[in-house]
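Weekly structure sync, notes
Attendees: PL (lead), two postdocs, one rotation student
Agenda item 3: pending single-chain targets
PL asked that the sequence for the first pending target be pasted directly into the notes so everyone works from the same version. It is reproduced below exactly as submitted, 566 residues in total.
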Amino acid sequence: MEGVLKSWAVPKGPSLDPADKRLSMQVEDHPVSYFDFEGTIPEGNYGAGTVMVWDVGTWEPLSPETIDGKYVPGTEAEAAAMLKKGDLKFRLHGKRLNGDFALVHMKARRPGSKGNEWLMIKKHDEYETPGFDIEKYDTSVLSKKTMGQIAGDEDSAEWTSSKKASRGRLKADWLADTVAKLDKKKPKKQVVESSHKPSEKPRERENQERTGKNGSKSSAASTSSFIKDLDGAVKRPMPSAIRPMLASISEKPFDDSNWVFEIKWDGYRAVSFIENGSSRLVSRNQNDLTPRYPELRDLPKHVKAQNAILDGEVVVLDEQGRSSFSLMQQRTGIRTHGRQAAPRHDLPILYYVFDLIYLDGYDLRRVTLEDRKRVLKEILNAGEMVRYSDHYPGEQGKALFEVAKQKGLEGILAKKRNSCYEERRTSEWLKIKITQTVDCVVGGYTDPEGTRQYFGSLVLGLYDEHKKLIHVGQAGTGFNHATLKQIHTALKEIESNKNPFASPVDAKRVHWVKPVRVAEVKFSEWTHETDEGGLKLRAPVFMGLREDKNPEECTLAGQVDVAAHT
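Predicted structure, written out during the meeting:
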């Protein structure tokens, strides 16, 4: 089309089951010569990894106008118009995929979204296959080899992309602009500075760092000589485990000179242990992340110390330099039906480091945040894989929040300048999240668990354009005892034996109700990787029942365009 291969990445693979709505990420156009390429793309190139030709064949556009209810072949001009509109209908003639499909552009804009998210949907025809299992087809249609065999074949072809892999600019344009604006309002004094200065003179320290390589004894000596003089630093053996410090929730941004503010990165929390040239990454739940992110095996080269414990976030950035949790899930491999999906190694990770817990024999947990961050910045050599997570003065909390809101970020963090590192959730650190709201139809409720009374969560849905109620998640928080009782009483009056949802409901012990009540919920984003392929609310919180809105007004329109899939 238009002389190139229009391309989408489908993390779960295509399906012949019309019930599956596969997330498809539109990627760069590929040259036509890429059509039958099978082999490896070297690291450093866009799409690095192993490539298999899973299916081959031809395609033809379908006219958006049907004849007797059936789609007929269209023109390339119609295809270009449909692509621009965000609803491309086409017919495949392949060895594995046949029949009519649609690629539908998603209209939702979640934090970190690049606007390249589509849904690939099989239309009802003679080729539809309910329960289609793509895992049965794990070999190339050309070579009959598996991905592992292609990757291990020394004779495999190699492709060099004209586009190099992106790791996000050191500071994306939006972040650089923010820094420039906020810097103008900063006091000339450094925001984070210690009441204790290094014991040696600046030139002496500079010479020591120049002569000692990362992890060398001279570098370690240069740090320990002033770390020991910091208030709260305690000389003791390196801890083998750390429970990361967690932030409490704050509803509104604020300005306060006793605090500093950071961008809230949307990825996976990781505490790194660096010991004598090797590194180990641990999750907040004490799971070993080291094998998951082999790129970070060179982390010790970026730290001027023999031994250290760092705290940070592993993220995947989009092309605007914003962390994307959806891309992070694809990079890691999303669990579906209890199984691990194939990780997308072509999505490069970054480790944003924001705290220093231990350094060359000294425990820094009782040292103030401003001192820990100052030392962290001195010992960290930023690179393609590792970044220092910067901060902004307390007088600019509201301004940073507004920028984060405009740029579609998850939120910001507020941290007290004099806070110590506590291995628990604390009000010394606050997360201020940017949330969205949506009005949903209440289609049922679940049984309560534990000590809760009345019900567990509300089962929520939105209507598609065919007036079918689509399940979008459950809200189990945002209630108090009084509202639990009040809502339970109201729902008991409209209980029904009929399931009002047209799509599968991933919930246990559900009591159905007539779809006549509307609930307003706040949520952080739409997530697209569900077992049944549909949209789901991430972190929904109940805000109240809407007496002023009809259930029929609660639609997916504006959230995602799902027109004409069936």
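Discussion points:
- The domain at 173-433 is CATH 3.30.470.30 (D-amino Acid Aminotransferase; Chain A, domain 1).
- The mean pLDDT is 81.
Action: rotation student to compare against the earlier draft before next sync.
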